[in-house]
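If you are new to this repository, start here. Below is one unmodified record pulled from the training split, so you can see the exact layout before writing a loader.
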Amino acid sequence: MSDEFTLGRRLPELVETMVESYERHPNCRHIDRAYLPAKRAVEELIQRLLELVYPGFFGRQDLTQHNVSYHVGELLPRIGYLANQQIFKSICYMNEIEGKDDDDACRKHAGGVAEEFLANLVAIRKKLDGDVQAAFEGDPAAVNCDEVILAYPGLLAVSVHRFAHVLYKLGVPLMARILSEWAHRKTGIDIHPGARIGGNFFIDHGTGVVIGETTDIGDGVKIYQGVTLGALSFPKDERGRLIRGYKRHPTVEDNVTLYANAIILGGDTVIGRDSVIGGSVFVTSSVPPYSTVTIKPPELKIKDRPQEPGSTAALPDYHI
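And here is the target side for that same chain:
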């Protein structure tokens, strides 16, 4: 008996039923279209961008004052090529959906967007320098800024967000979202590329943080793991479809600290400057500046645990 597997006579039937399913379930197909950004190329772009803004930490490590200009001179054209290629595909993808068919106009538009994106990289790096410093100053466990860059997931998520947000503002939302979801997979931190985040921003620990599309965050904000800046509700139109494009997520003003698992919801919710929101607090209305918001600690009940038979360990008594 042969162990070789073969579909044999069933192959034509299986092919036919699968192709028929493409027609019955069109949401899961991309056929008869020419354009779509390539996730692998976008992920390569992320790596090159990190290498550019954090020289010596990502990619090549033998950099000196003598060779760094040559390194940047080689790196920037590669970044420009990758960015332009994927921006072109993303813009043409949107045009294709809208029934537009003008590759020349699309190519010209993409070239302008790519140039503007590259022109923003120095400003992005300036913001990231502040984010690194905020992380070092905000975490007593940090040895130095090098450790922050090499090891902190919060900084990685914020770094990629800074790139994605510029692309989002430049009208390339699908490509921006691919960047954001790459960081989400790597760090467990979910920041929508539309969220506006000020300078000196620090996410400590980070796992489970969610920051929605229309969130506004000021300067000097610090948040901990499990924090959600989300929507309170999702209004629908007369046909039952979600209404998009309005302010759904909160505003967090300057120098606010949000402790672990705090949940802040609603587009009208404003957390006033220099406020502290305690752990596990649920907020759906605005908080004045210079406030501290906490919840009443739950009542703890601790009972004596009987010793196991034969145990010689004395158990301490606890009383509330």
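Two things worth knowing about this chain: The two ends are 73 Å apart (CA to CA). The chain has two domains: 29-188, 195-296.
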